[in-house]
Amino acid sequence: MRVPLPIAIILSLIVIGVVWWRGTAGIDFLTPPSDAELAAIRNRVEMSLPQANLRDDAISVPDTPPPLPEPVVIEKPPEPEIDLGDLSSAPGLSAYAEFGEKGSSYLIELASLLESEGQFQRALLAWERVLDSTDADPAQAAAAMAAARRLRPTLPDWNVDPQGAVSITLHAGTGKKLAASLEPILAQVAKDIGRASSGILAVEISVASGTSSLDEDGPTPVAMWISGTGEGSSSTDVLSFTVKDLETVEPEVMRTVILLVRNHFEKSRTLTAPTVPPRDEPARTALELRVTRLSWQSFGRALGPPAPATQ
After folding, report:
1. pLDDT tens digits, residue range 126-159?
2. pLDDT tens for residues 230-264?
3. What is the DSSP string of 141-167?
4. How far apart are CA 309 and CA 207, in angstroms?
5. Residue 130: closest CA among 287, 262, 270, 272
6. How far apart are CA 60 and CA 63, in angstroms?
7. Could you give the CA distance from residue 239 to residue 257 in angstroms, rounded to a whole number?
8. Statement: the pTM of the whole predicted model exceeds 0.85
9. Rounded to whole angstroms, how far apart are CA atoms 296 and 271?
10. Computed from CA positions of residues 116, 156, 124, 281, in that sequence, does the dihedral angle turn out positive or negative?
11. CA angle, 124 as apex, 119 and 129 as ends, to 5°?
């Protein structure tokens, strides 16, 4: 049975009115609550919120923040004290070699300090120890060679007495045609070695010529080695190169000399072997800066005759 719309609206209003009257009967909407009622309401609200003075709730902020962790202090190892040596006495050629075990950085600092003190001979010795007594990296080796280039022209030769020089012989073997041209070049290189060694070495030359067939076809081979001059002297290995143009002979000879010295120290392990110069480096510069004065002295003495046995 369908109820007419006007009757349905009237019945709905009656239901709403009855429900509202029953829910609000006896309630006073006009009289404000008493102080006791307000206090009770405030108490209920406070109890329903997170408490700020409790440490175990996830929202409140602690009254006192937790202490920060102690900072971690990483102590650096103490820097080694730089020993300048006895500046009142003349240094030996091997001065500061005992500091090789301290490393390149220590010797570079030592050399720089000696320069600042005006001790230029000692500074050069310390710079040379970077090259012949440590495993310097390329940057450290370059710094040492730059210092040697700067200091050596300001200092006298280490040995000014020709009688006190160590004698060695620079040998070369080639074909007859090239031998005549090679001899003056070898003589000039011998002088350059003596100068590079700061007067420590006196270098003789010996050129041996083979059969003329070595000159006929293609580049001419040249074999080189270095020996002592006395009876029973030692000799280096033999290294060789080929010659196409006479203009390339002198730098090739100097480069081969450095390689012979390098091979000697790679075998003997007495000093750090000099590094191989790049092709674009002037040969005389390499001869003077890559092989230290102590290395020249040690090399020359190693090729000399053995010392006589003592009774």
Report:
1. 999 999 999 999 999 999 999 999 999 999 999 9
2. 888 999 999 999 998 888 999 999 999 999 999 99
3. HHHHHHHHHHHGGGS--S---GGGSEE
4. 33
5. 272
6. 9
7. 9
8. no
9. 11
10. positive
11. 125
